[in-house]
């Protein structure tokens, strides 16, 4: 029997894959390797897959999940990543990882150099309305009360902050989703439809 949490994770995966679209003949970079189902699906169909995992445990897990696919997975601290020796990619996907980096703008600036002009960047974070906490919605920063990921704290950012950083770093918003039930064909039903948005999902295009 699938638990509610498992069903929610599956729903999130379906939303991410819907935004990614057809990955055939694409070279793909997976920042953080935050969703193994996304990694498997992409690696099975893309022309090339490179994953940057947040720590050695995630690297080992991702490599095991992709052992039947041609894929390269490295351990990389995204707070320090400058993209050396990676080349460029047609598509970048990131699940969870962006809300666990200290300086999102720095990551986006690095990413801009490794996405081809017109290439896409699809990423998912917990919806800012769920991460604001006692500090308030418009106060960006680390939220120690939220679960960590790969030993890294979660950072709250308003939607305005995400959109501003994307624009300043050369990415145009192409599609946005808040994970509304019924938007895509879910493989597993949730126990009950949520009353509030759970995620924020962005599909962006690199401008010249």
UniProtKB/TrEMBL annotation:
Q: Which domain of life is it from?
A: Bacteria
Task: Name the coiled-coil region(s).
Answer: none
* UniProt cross-references to InterPro entries, sorted A to Z: SAM-dependent_MTases_sf
Entry GO MF terms = methyltransferase activity
Share an example GO biological-process annotation for this protein.
methylation
Record has Membrane as a keyword:
no
Keywords of this entry = Methyltransferase, Transferase
Question: Does Transferase appear among the keywords?
Answer: yes
- CDD domains linked: AdoMet_MTases
Which protein are we looking at? Methyltransferase domain-containing protein
């Amino acid at each position: 029997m699938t638990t509610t949490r498992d069903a929610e994770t599956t729903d999130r995966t379906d939303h991410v894959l819907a935004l990614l679209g057809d990955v055939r003949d694409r070279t793909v970079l997976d920042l953080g390797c935050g969703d193994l189902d996304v990694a498997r699906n992409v690696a099975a169909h893309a022309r090339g897959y490179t994953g940057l995992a947040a720590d050695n445990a995630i690297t080992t897990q991702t490599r095991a999940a992709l052992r039947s696919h041609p894929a390269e997975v490295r351990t990389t601290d995204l707070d320090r990543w400058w993209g050396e020796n990676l080349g460029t990619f047609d598509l970048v996907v990131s699940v969870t990882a962006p809300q666990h980096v200290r300086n999102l703008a720095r990551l986006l600036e690095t990413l801009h150099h490794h996405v081809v002009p017109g290439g896409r960047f699809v990423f998912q974070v917990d919806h800012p309305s769920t991460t604001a906490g006692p500090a308030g919605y418009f106060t960006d920063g680390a939220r120690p009360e939220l679960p960590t990921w790969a030993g890294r704290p979660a950072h709250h950012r308003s939607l305005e902050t995400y959109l501003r950083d994307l624009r300043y770093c050369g990415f145009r918003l192409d599609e946005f989703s808040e994970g509304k039930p019924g938007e895509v064909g879910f493989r597993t039903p949730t126990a009950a439809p949520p009353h509030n948005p759970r995620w924020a999902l962005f599909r962006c295009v690199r401008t010249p």
